[in-house]
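Journal club prep — side note

Before the paper discussion, L.F. wants everyone to see what a predicted structure for a comparable chain looks like in token form. Sequence:
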Amino acid sequence: MPYKPPVADHLFLLRDVLGIGRYGDLPGFAEASMDTVAQIVEEAGRFTSEVLAPLNSVGDKQGCTWRPDNTVTTPDGFKAAYKALVEGGWPALGSETEFGGQGLPHVVNLAFSEMSSSANMAFSMYPGLTHGAYSAILNGGSPEQKALYLPKLASGEWCGTMNLTEPHCGTDLGLLRTKAVPQADGSYRITGQKIWISGGEHDMADNIVHLVLARVEGAPAGTRGISLFIVPKFIPDADGKPGARNSVFCAGLEEKMGIHGNATCVIQHEESQGWLVGEENQGLRLMFVMMNEARIGVGLQGIAQAEAAYQAAAQFAKERLQGRSLTGPKNPDGPADPIIVHPDVRRMLMDSRVIIEGGRAFLFWTALHGDLAHGSPDEAVRQKGSDYMALMTPVVKGFLTDRGFKVCSDAMQVHGGSGFTEHFPVSQYLRDCRIALIYEGTNGVQALDLVGRKLAADGGRGVMGFFAEIDAYVAAHEDDKDLAPIIAGLAKAKEELQDATMWLMANGLANPDNAGAASTDYMHLFGLTALAYMWAMMAQAAQARIAAGETDAFYATKLTLARYYAERILPETSAHLAKLKAGADTLMSLPAEAF
């Protein structure tokens, strides 16, 4: 079944729920009228469904090819599709106009990114990582570095990567060994091996700009001694064009479970020439700009693959004939009823849909706060936006990818045995989605980051602000009979999340294992509560449309889904709270040899 971009849902969020039209006086938003945004989103839907989606299975089956000369060839059609992507100006949507970008808000760019990832996750990673490299240089690069690299990265003419992981060193970057030796001309010689480098080598762009973490000789041990370097595949010449070949190359490709169309490389630096970004020993701070952007992007991948898998499962359920409805035949002229009549099939589909649509709203809402953090003239709004971006990023990444993978698994279950074969697309969606729970920091690490750093940041200002915002929303709408189930559910979930937060504050410091044992349940409790808030706002917006005379079934469906979320998904918060409060004693009681 061909992928159908959810254009109507994106426009509903941007127009009716988030109301981006009211920010027209802020940078970027002035050019983002709803008419313009509608044109962008509709054209994004056309491009991703017609150009990228047909290559998804091709990329999965062919994969990338490494050659003995250390070059990599992408699957058939990828190079032409990438050229069309660049010519269409899609990579430049969210980049600054100063460097050739279109300067649109990130929340608008997110709509294209989601469609691109649903259509072809492996392909969409190439421009996604490039924008991360762009952001790192934008935030830490010198004026000369910005002038040289940003226009090419913004346009997509050049691609970018992030070189972090080493064979002995994953999440604990303090262990990295790649070294940087300063040279008389101000550059550095970089030596070391990096692994799992997405898009590390390919044939689609004129140059690849690696952002590399390395340790300058004599630097402090651990994370305090890490610096960030620009290491281009081709060193730009005096005219800013790709010049001499640098001594950085792909030593091989990883054999992966999924995302076969993306070149996941072992990258060898053999005294490659690099240039310091920012100051020595400040590299991790700058790289986190890129990593946090990537984490939001990975959360998006969870929802994007879930959307594609759900669409395939829903179509299959309407066509597959098997059994009869428990309440009597619904297809009396046929040999059996379509499986969509069976309550358990509907359960899986509706569970999936409310997570997808609520998760998409959470992504867009978070991205909007990121835009406000950068562009609002109001200091309080900027601070709130910054607080929310920090607080929500691990939830977006961890919760949405955990639940997105479950959606893909349920989509396979709807297909039955057919889904376990390669004749149907859900197998690929499940395999591709699985990496999202692992890279850019495993979901367990995201949960630890949430409870160990983000909750306590600035005296808990972010989470307390979130609680206050939900309290105000509940107070404003608690008498609205049309929204009663979701408002009541939101209020209860928020109280449980606050209870969990207080428990962590009381028990996590005294015994850090309590915080670690509680972290994943806390992250899921937080995610469920956040989606309850999103569903309340979506239900409110849909009800307002209906009250104004709108007869499109789209809005009535939103109200049904909001009620379903409140009745069938939100009760999970109580279970997460109970598990969280069990503490770490039993969990940590077995000796290691007992496992």
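L.F.'s comment for the group: The first strand starts at residue 65 and ends at 66. Keep this in mind when we get to the figures.
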